[in-house]
Amino acid sequence: MVCNTYMDEYEKLVIRMTTPRVVIDNAVCPTATIVKFDSARKHGILLEAVQVLTDLNLSIKKAYISSDGRWFMDVFHVTDLKGNKLTDESVINYIEQSLGTIHNGRTKSYDGLTALELTGTDRVGLLSEVFAVLADLQCNVVEAKVWTHNGRIACLIHVKDRNSGTPIEDSQQIDQIEARLRNVLKGDNDIRSAKTTVSMAVTHTERRLHQMMFADRDYKREAILKNSSDAPAVTVQNWLERGYSVVNVQCKDRTKLLFDVVCTLTDMEYVVFHATINTARDRAYLEFYIRHTDGTPISSEPERQRVIQCLQAAVKRRASEGVMLELCASDRQDLLADVTRTFRENGLNVTRAEISTNVDMALNVFHVTDAIGNPADPKIIESVRQKIGIGNLKVKELPALKYHKEAEREEQAAGVAGTVLLSLGSLVKRNLYNLGLIRSYS
């Protein structure tokens, strides 16, 4: 009896120690909602937490991440895209539930769909050819995301069989899809081998796109960023006394920025032990104290340069280049093939795309430029709208992040992350202050 009681208490302790603790507070900060997340430290846990917040399109204004032994203590200052605190109880409850069960590896379900992964050399009209092939092979596109960067393209497309409405499982049909798409992706002069994969795997779409482009080595041509005024500034230095590599990223702020950076560090097998994220006006300042999963810092100059290149690429992949067009229309067979063919015939190149269907409605967003990457001629855009349907295809403005003057003054007073190494003691004290565990970190 005593033994059973002891085991019951021990199991309760284990559950308590391994279950994340979540506190959401709207009273402490006048400009943002505070989300506190404490959990047992494991590789990838920070990425999962950030993923929950960014999947809701929340803007992370500040964040403090610190680990103590086997425990993580994270604080996020978040707002909606309009710069307002979170007041919707359903959103707050979702965050609490999702973060509280994060160790279960929650992800979006794509039951009943087949995933197509495509990478290759980007060119004008490529997406039109891809969707034309899928239409010809009787595949209905249910959801898709397309990224382009440094002349490469990555697509993650979820489809089902048009006739049966079920996943595509027939091996001969899968082989045919792969072969046809591979020929399209290769084109006439692909300098690297195009890749196509058909699977039933369930993966977070945007993380998978990062992984696909990383595997495709899209970061290899990052030297062109030096001539760009909005190029992310990335520095990496070793703090040998403490055994950390210190990574600083400074760039224009945008939604999902923290996710993109943490995703890349995680998939490169680095562990974030401490971090400070600040935003001021339209700029973001991110500082990370990292080690390899084996506990060692970055060990060579080539590795340091590779980290810099990969983080620059991670920031730039999601850059919204070109005019944003939103297509909202009744879904029908060959809709995507027809729309993207119209883009191609008018010399428009799709740099990013998000495809989704809801019941019988298609809601698709395209970012388009001219054939060489310059802003598209407004007259051509209007001509394309006339052909597709003025009411169906609309020009949308990119959503601008909102900032509070109070938050800006607070950031200026606190200072922002730079390239100078901070003492670990100061960093930890600041994080403990923001966790509410000490009264001052001065």
Can you give a write-up of this model?
Residues 34-109, 115-199, 324-400 form the ACT domain. By secondary structure, the chain is of the alpha+beta class. The strands form 2 sheets. The protein has an 8-stranded antiparallel beta sheet with strand order 1-2-4-3-11-12-10-9. The protein has an 8-stranded antiparallel beta sheet with strand order 8-5-7-6-14-15-13-16, with helices on both faces. The model is unreliable at 223-227, 410-425 and 434-442 (pLDDT under 50). Helices cover 33% and strands 30% of the residues. It has 12 helices and 16 strands. The chain has helices at residues 2-18, 45-54, 89-100, 126-136, 171-186, 205-215, 257-267, 301-317, 335-345, 378-388, 405-414, 424-434, and strands at 21-25, 33-40, 59-68, 71-79, 114-121, 139-149, 152-161, 195-199, 233-239, 244-252, 270-280, 283-292, 323-330, 349-358, 361-369, 393-396.
**Percentage of helical residues?**
25-40%
- Give, in spatial order, the strands making up the sheet with the most strands: 1-2-4-3-11-12-10-9
Shape: globular
Run of helices and strands: HEEHEEHEHEEHEHEEHEEHEHEEHEHH
**So how many helices?**
12
Q: Mean of residue pLDDT?
A: 85
Distance between the termini: 53 Å
